[in-house]
Specification:
two-stranded antiparallel ribbon, 3 domains, 4 strands, mainly alpha, single chain
């Protein structure tokens, strides 16, 4: 995800340089790269989500780590991070110590059925499929139409700004049109 982000920044800087030099729309390879870079942006989005979800396992809610006086995490004899514990009262009323956090295995809903999960996944799949078809249609129309107008670097000649400002003056000599 980070690598793709750096690639997009570099690609945009290169395209900006080519635009500044007036050669962007004649450099077909970079235009084609932008067409296919959209897939990379979607991949970076999904890879970031996967990294966030897989990286937090086995926790849904990360518990606080036990830290020493210097702020470094305390490790056990196996080299694993020590997690802070919280007092918990068990169902039978006996006190116990439990890691403060929510493990993935404890986050499973007892109310939502597997059919409901499947139905929502199918619904979202259809919705995103329709959005993909719409996006491809609009993108294809934009690509087929091509860039509109002349793509040259705008230039200001001496007097252009004064002429533009002068055309805004009303009969009273005011730029705002309020006569003040």
């Amino acid at each position: 995800m980070v690598g793709l982000g750096v690639f997009f920044i570099a690609l945009t800087l290169l395209a900006s340089f080519l635009y500044w030099r007036g050669r962007l729309f004649e450099t077909r390879w970079i235009l084609w790269t932008f067409v296919f870079a959209v897939v990379g942006a979607m991949a970076a989005n999904q890879l970031g989500w996967v990294a966030a979800e897989v990286g937090r396992q086995p926790w849904i809610v990360q518990p606080p780590m036990v830290r020493d006086a210097g702020g470094a995490p305390v490790l056990d004899s196996d080299g694993h991070v020590q997690w802070a514990t919280a007092p918990v009262v068990l169902d039978d009323g006996t006190p116990a110590e439990r890691v403060a956090g929510l493990r993935t295995s404890d986050g499973v809903s007892e109310v939502v059925t597997s059919g409901q999960v499947l139905g929502s996944m199918v619904m979202f799949g259809l919705l995103y499929g329709l959005l993909l078809v719409l996006w491809l249609y609009v993108l294809n129309n934009k690509i087929q139409a091509g860039p509109g107008g002349e793509h040259t670097k705008p230039s200001l000649r001496e007097g252009d700004l004064l002429h533009a400002a002068g055309s805004r003056v009303d009969s009273t000599g005011s730029l705002t049109g309020t006569g003040e």
